[in-house]
Amino acid sequence: MTPSESFEMPQRALDRDCTTLSRHVLEQLQSFSPEAQDLSTLMNRIALAGKLTARRLSQAGLMDGVLGFAGGENVQGEDVKKMDVYANEVFISVFKQSGLVCRLASEEMEKPYYIPENCPIGRYTLVYDPIDGSSNIDANLNVGSIFAIRQQEGNDESGEALDLLQSGHKQLAAGYILYGPSTVLVYSIGTGVHSFTLDPSLGEFILWQENIQVPEHGSVYSVNEGNFWQWEDSIRDYIRYVHRHEGYTGRYSGALVGDFHRILLQGGVFLYPGTVKKPEGKLRLLYESAPLAFLMEQAGGQASTGLQNIMDVIPEKLHQRTPLVIGSPEDVALVESFIQEGARGDRH
């Protein structure tokens, strides 16, 4: 190794360590305009919420208020975990101080949370799932947070945030934070998908991967097969297909963010279809499906209800649910072919 080569190697590592999340956002936008600085600031606040949540999760079993149920139900009728409550309050607290976000809409809250002191200036809305997969916490398994940023349109005089009832194409940015062996933040502002890892010694999210591209096809299919007999025949036919063909492997963790992260990096398909009794599915469009669809399309993948592109779905209410098929283009197309064939059979 020449002296110049030995110098270049640590220099590259140092350049990487210096690429923080806020710097990266500005570089992606190639601008220091007010809008670019707003997005950089918003991503910094999201990162702070992630750091606070990660710290709390790391203390599970050592302090009160981390494990177990909070003793109530959210607007979805689901049992609320203590970490759901904490993480939701964390996002509210960090954005109260942002000066930019006027509203926060969370799957844990029936109506959006307004920050009146921000509204004269702040024209942004954060939509988010504060803790995805909270049932995993007591078993010390992966969980995550999902988020998207939307521009407020109009004055929202009714206080019902009706301007959020638009397609996923209205998202300015989207991403998630994965709390696992390391804390990872993945985001897109429409210029590719980029991943950052939290360095606890620096207290910063440091660039890990840029311009992530999902493989055209992957071997992983991720689905809760415990619901097999509740699905339509078309979904059961797809599962039978992958069971009978070599080259497929099932992976399902019970946390959407963890399963999505695997698909994003390794390829394959995640699906959470509706059931015969609940064809609308379980996942929320605004807080889960649309943000992840935004990311997957930026990474060259696809996201679908099985019959329609997720990004084209226009919600009729804030907490609307939708089936989700998301991942590598070839694998999503295969699942869609079974669903569409089933739909044609039903019409006939």
What about the largest sheet? 8 strands, mixed
Q: In sequence order, what are the helices and strands, one letter per element?
A: HHHEEHEEEEEEEEEHEHEHEEH
Give the termini separation. 71 Å
Radius of gyration: 20 Å
Structural class: alpha+beta
Uncertain ranges? 62-75
Shape: globular
**How much of the polypeptide forms β-strand, as a percent range?**
15-25%
Mean pLDDT: 88
Fraction in helix: 25-40%
The order of strands across the largest sheet is 4-3-5-6-7-8-9-10
Number of strands: 15
Q: How many distinct helices? A: 8
Structural description of this entry:
This protein is an alpha+beta fold and 348 residues long. Helix content is 34%, strand content 22%. The chain contains eight helices and 15 strands. It has helices spanning 3-17, 21-29, 34-58, 82-96, 233-244, 256-266, 285-298, 329-347, and strands at residues 69-73, 79-81, 101-106, 113-114, 124-132, 143-151, 171-179, 183-188, 194-199, 204-209, 220-222, 249-250, 268-272, 302-304, 324-327. An eight-stranded mixed beta sheet has the order 4-3-5-6-7-8-9-10, with helices on both faces. Strands 12-11-13-15-14 form a five-stranded mixed beta sheet, sandwiched between helices. Helix 5 (233-244) crosses helix 8. The longest helix is centred in the N-terminal third of the chain and has 25 residues, at 34-58. It is globular and about 55 Å long. The relative contact order is 0.12.
